[in-house]
Amino acid sequence: MRKLRVGILGATGAVGQHMVIALQRHPWFEITEVAASDRSVGFAYAERVAWRMSEPIPEPVGRLRIKECAPPLECDFVLAALSAELAKNVEYEFAAAGCPVVSNSSYYRMHERVPLVIPEINADHLRILPHQQKAESFGRGFIVTNPNCTTIGLCLPLAPLHRRFGLEKVFITSMQAISGAGYTGLHALDIFDNVLPHIDGEEPKVVDEPKKILGKLHGDAWVHEEFAVSAQCNRVPVEDGHTICVSVGLRNKPSLEEVKAAMREFRGLPQEVSLPTAPAYPVIVSDENNRPQPRLDLRAGGGMTCVVGRLRPCEILDYKFVTLSHNLIRGAAGAALLNAELLYQQGYLR
Amino acid sequence: MRKLRVGILGATGAVGQHMVIALQRHPWFEITEVAASDRSVGFAYAERVAWRMSEPIPEPVGRLRIKECAPPLECDFVLAALSAELAKNVEYEFAAAGCPVVSNSSYYRMHERVPLVIPEINADHLRILPHQQKAESFGRGFIVTNPNCTTIGLCLPLAPLHRRFGLEKVFITSMQAISGAGYTGLHALDIFDNVLPHIDGEEPKVVDEPKKILGKLHGDAWVHEEFAVSAQCNRVPVEDGHTICVSVGLRNKPSLEEVKAAMREFRGLPQEVSLPTAPAYPVIVSDENNRPQPRLDLRAGGGMTCVVGRLRPCEILDYKFVTLSHNLIRGAAGAALLNAELLYQQGYLR
Amino acid sequence: MRKLRVGILGATGAVGQHMVIALQRHPWFEITEVAASDRSVGFAYAERVAWRMSEPIPEPVGRLRIKECAPPLECDFVLAALSAELAKNVEYEFAAAGCPVVSNSSYYRMHERVPLVIPEINADHLRILPHQQKAESFGRGFIVTNPNCTTIGLCLPLAPLHRRFGLEKVFITSMQAISGAGYTGLHALDIFDNVLPHIDGEEPKVVDEPKKILGKLHGDAWVHEEFAVSAQCNRVPVEDGHTICVSVGLRNKPSLEEVKAAMREFRGLPQEVSLPTAPAYPVIVSDENNRPQPRLDLRAGGGMTCVVGRLRPCEILDYKFVTLSHNLIRGAAGAALLNAELLYQQGYLR
Amino acid sequence: MRKLRVGILGATGAVGQHMVIALQRHPWFEITEVAASDRSVGFAYAERVAWRMSEPIPEPVGRLRIKECAPPLECDFVLAALSAELAKNVEYEFAAAGCPVVSNSSYYRMHERVPLVIPEINADHLRILPHQQKAESFGRGFIVTNPNCTTIGLCLPLAPLHRRFGLEKVFITSMQAISGAGYTGLHALDIFDNVLPHIDGEEPKVVDEPKKILGKLHGDAWVHEEFAVSAQCNRVPVEDGHTICVSVGLRNKPSLEEVKAAMREFRGLPQEVSLPTAPAYPVIVSDENNRPQPRLDLRAGGGMTCVVGRLRPCEILDYKFVTLSHNLIRGAAGAALLNAELLYQQGYLR
Question: Rounded distance, CA D143 to CA D332, Å?
């Protein structure tokens, strides 16, 4: 079988590096292009990347010449890990040039013709793509996005509750890792021995994105779900792993055991069709009272499983719990890659 | 003026050390006794304490011989910083021996004849003391307690809201400092680069204590306030300072400006009568969007002021905000000392 | 091929857990016994271990019942990760019972009939074993040890210098990781935002052990190398990885390029015979001026390679450099395992 | 007594903020001007400074308008906390305009007519100033510098050893705090859970500066001391406080007790004439085996005392020890201020 050729946009950044690692030995895809900012163009990837992964740079990727973030690239689709500002034009140009864009960037997430996909939850939202291609005259190009890192870790345990019991209200307080700000996003003394009670632009994403993801696509129009979300997002001095304290109000009034069962039984298309990056369980529920912990649970399912703990009744809403996910794997590089695998399996990538 | 003589129970621990520092150069009180666990008895304080404060041990205290935690001690009252288990018997014995106990320990906080006091909020709860003295035959002894460190940082901004607008519901998620666990409470690898989603016994305290503090004392009977509290308590890798994300539902529906004004205008008896340890403002409200921060705000009011920030409407309840307080000063040593000053000013200590 | 059966002594500790991970999918060995302290005996390993590895417990090991640390165990040899005090009797009893002991413990390292082995450096020291077995009447049992974690990271780059140029003097200052103290070895507030300028018992080990390792075995008598070592050992707030600043005085006066080449060309028996746990390179020399770093270099060679950087002339001795090694892999679990592989390859284990 | 008016150059930076705090309630000096980079000019200090000190901004300083870093300023002298690049021209311009410059910057430290002063050690080097003023036609202006933060913490314990026993060789390995890089000097992920084995430009300073400081001024010519220094400088994840491991070779061969006594008895002019910022003891020697520690010892002498510990014989040179000093106080803001006090006491400032 010929492997599909992948170009990575933003290949030198934190998420781009995780994409490079996730794609080595991938059964369906292989990296043929790496693109980054202008000052790196023309150099070998290994020469210019400030490599921070514990595994070494895969040699064939290290030898690739860095290209500009502009079409055409020698590849069948691109994985994009760009800033929102860059994504606006660059992703559009690739799609317009007929190149599918599987994006981790935030710019197009809430666009009315762009699906915002977590494959376990709303794989069917890909049905918008023909409409998008037609409306934008993209030819075989398109743009598919994955949610914000905090949104993903939140939606995975919420989705089975919503399906079975109906979400009405969601309170969240996040404790987010340093790496979520990018390698140069925080000065050391900003976060050393400190908590930052604000993350620029984060709370609106966490409030809005779940309503689209858990919503429905009727023809070419979305019906966003209508539940209330209140979010307080904080940065804490932890390297990787976003921990979120969640309280939920549910339409039906399930027992604690029913809630736990819903999360534990949750599977999606990636599990059914065994996508290469899919974890066996999207959500694990721990019965221990001091879990999840970044130190102990971050690598569950290869970084693709959310670990939930402390599930218990809430004095105000119905139930509360703590959920942890790997912000750079399930929340970024792995999210985009799982979307690409879904697109391939569904025939959108060829 | 003769200074009142103070004995410190648990003088070698983290809170005890903060008490020692807070009492140097105190206008009303002076330390005459330090008591600690058996293996230190008989040694000079300076010889046995594992001193961790940035200022040196005050010399007169350093020379004191450590006594057993048992009456009688040569003092007019004791400040107690004992574990709950020890406090049960030790504090009772001191009170029964006629020695007033101003306690930071948790054992007697919810006892029906023991006041749980934050002087800015419920100084009038001291009126239970004659009943306590009579019922327990304490003579001139008594027990007064201060709340849990997280409860205090929560109640200071809640009290003015409750008075003006009526609290109905309170959601909190705390991010608590390492020092709150005591110097030996956590192994390094338990909290280094980690978040712990559970603190033993903490959530029930944060749920129950505010209802007593904000409640009313009618004669010798309490009427606890009836509002719902849902708490999720976490430990984060920060040395000092508990940060709490709070959402409140209020009976009246004030504007944002009214909420802010209520907090800013909040003063209590300690401010009115200028108790030595009272800060000028119990609560400061910052208008910047990335405050409070432990690094920047922990020492406000000498560690006795709560700093509130990010006050804004809540999508589910009415308003939400973030509050920070110094867990070892306002939340422990300073809390007990302020109670002692209140007791002195009110004539309960002589 | 039948795999040799391994028992792990101290299987629940930090080093024991690394041994369990290192042995999953091992081509020659398989774990058949796990032994730990009395209070765990009889329980399944998965029930009692406070598992802290990022990978899950290998299932077959998780199901093993924990045994006492006493012979006989159902195994062909034991890997021992015990405290020095325990090791004294326990390791001796196993050897006396005819069971080979491959030990990471410090008790027998400097014993005159016990080899202290880094397989790349002094594999030939195993020739003492027949003498040991005879003198102690051990039958087919024996004790082989590996050095202290800091010693190993120091000796790997020193060995090729010593062979080619003759070591005369070695200055070292170490910056050692928290995990080297064991999971319960440090209170959080002892090391958070702190440097500890002393590690109990460490400096004498770093001074003495290299002289035995780089020394010669003549018949059944050691001739320790005679060079001077001055060591200052510090604990810094880093999770894993011991960084050591080294200055060396050499008998011959090589050029900088010759020193670098000596390290880069260094290979030992494990590389020649391709022991399963042997890295391709025992030592890597970086030419960048800000390497090695724990964050970037700790996993080189699967945690079995030392990374050296900043090699340059010294104003007092001849050359200085910085070396980094993984204290729990190359410095402990991997060290013992590589010794076991060497023993097997050399025919001492059957 | 009229207070001298001080201008702070670089007032918004980390060192500048420490200068502001150190000068509140100063008996001789008062801040009348604050100067900083262009984008802040014209704003009130309190509006533009990213204040990071635990104490609040002194109100009169907070109200000052920020000026350009260019003469003339309304002050009797300036304290300069500028980058080396800026210092080159700016400091020269102030001196040329007749305004004394007391500088913490590195640019002029090794200049042949600029004294590099630690008042306890080489107050007599100020005798170069008339030569400087004449050679450069500075009028009453001049430039006086203090050493690099690491140099100061090193020289304070070395000076008494040099005087009594004659320094021949000095080995140092430093473990330097994050704050030494300035507030924006390090990305969080560069130093979180990491050690950096290189600090740009640091080692040459630590090698060269002590030879000038401990050297002699004959007329208008320096004779630098001739001893060998070998330095390895590292950054560790500690907020404040540079810890240095030192080994010394001495011409005379004192006993351990003589070495300890030399450090303990060390006093200088600042102690003799009681300069306001002078600590009672420039160096304290701890006999405990796990001191100094940043957590416990950083505030000794108000941050102006070096704490030495682990003094013991060295296997290669004569003695070794560990020394700790506060890099922003004794190593920067306090160093410059103590120089200003010395200049005032010696009649150079009026």
Answer: 16
Catalytic site residue from A149, A155, A233, A306 = A149
Look at A188 and D193 and tell me if their CB atoms are within 8 Å: no
**C52 and chain A in contact, CB less than 8 A:** yes
- Six-digit token pair at C202? 């460490």
User: Among C242, C237, C236, C233, which Cα is nearest to C292's?
Assistant: C242
Alpha carbon B53 to chain centroid distance? 19
Maximum alpha-carbon separation in chain A: 60
Domain ranges in chain A are 4-148+333-345, 149-326
Q: Is D242 a catalytic residue?
A: yes
Give me the residue from A192, A295, A300 closest to C52, CB to CB: A295
Q: How many C-alpha atoms does A118 have within 13 Å on its Cβ side?
A: 33
Instruction: State how far residue A186 is from chain D, nearest Cα, in angstroms.
Output: 6
Which residues fall within 8 angstroms of residue D10, CB to CB, at 6 or more apart? D16, D35, D36, D69, D80, D81, D82, D83, D86
Given an 8 Å threshold on Cβ–Cβ distance, is C187 in contact with B186? yes
Q: Which of residues 194-253 of D touch B (CB under 8 A)?
A: none
d(CA B77, CA B4): 8
Under a CB-based contact definition with an 8 Å cutoff, are residues D337 and D304 in contact?
no
Q: What spatial distance separates the first Cα and last Cα of chain B, rounded to whole Å?
A: 12
Q: In B, which residues are within 8 Å of D303 by CB distance?
A: none
State whether residue D309 sits within 8 Å of chain C by CB.
yes
Omega within 30 of 0 (cis) for the link into C27: no
Measured between alpha carbons, how far is B348 from B340 in angstroms, rounded to an integer?
9
The answer, as to whether pTM is greater than 0.90, is yes
Q: What is the pLDDT of residues B209-261, one digit of tens each?
A: 999 999 999 999 999 999 999 999 999 999 999 999 999 999 999 999 999 99
- What does each C-alpha distance from C77 to A96, A285, C17, C298, C346 come to in angstroms? 65, 38, 17, 29, 15
CA–CA distance, B88 with B86 (Å, rounded to integer): 5
Looking at the domain that runs over B4-148+333-345, which CATH code has it been given? 3.40.50.720
- The answer for residues whose C-beta is within 8 angstroms of residue B39's C-beta and 6 or more apart is none
Matching residue, tokens 């021949």:
D168
pLDDT confidence band for A1 (50 / 70 / 90) = confident
Which residue do the tokens 């699967």 mark?
C302
Q: Provide the pairing of β-strand D167-176 with C4-9.
A: unpaired
Using a CB-CB cut-off of 8 Å, the residues of chain D touching C289 are 198
Q: Can you read off the two tokens belonging to residue D38?
A: 């262009």
Q: What is each CA distance from B53 to A282, B277, C195, D295, D297, in whole angstroms? A: 47, 19, 16, 8, 9
Q: In a mutagenesis test of the B interface, which of C191, C192, C196, C295 is the best target, namely the one with the most B β-carbons within 10 Å?
A: C192
Q: Cβ B189–A247 below 8 Å, yes or no? A: no
C86 touches chain A (CB under 8 A): no
Whether A258 has a pLDDT exceeding 90, the answer reads yes
Q: C149-326 has which fold?
A: Dihydrodipicolinate Reductase; domain 2 (3.30.360)
Q: Are D54 and B299 inside 8 Å of each other by CB?
A: yes
- Coil vs helix vs strand at C182: coil
- Measured at the CA of D51, the angle between CA D49 and CA D57, to 5 degrees, comes to 95
Please check whether residue D324 touches B, CB under 8 A. Answer: no
CB-based contact A52 C296, cutoff 8 Å: yes
Tell me the per-residue pLDDT of C320-347, one tens digit each, with 9 for 90 and over: 999 999 999 999 999 999 999 999 999 9
B274 touches chain A (CB under 8 A): no
CA C129 to chain centre: 19
Interface residue A287 vs chain C (CB under 8 A): no
Using CB atoms and an 8 Å cut-off, which of residues 158-187 of chain A contact chain B? 169, 171, 173, 175
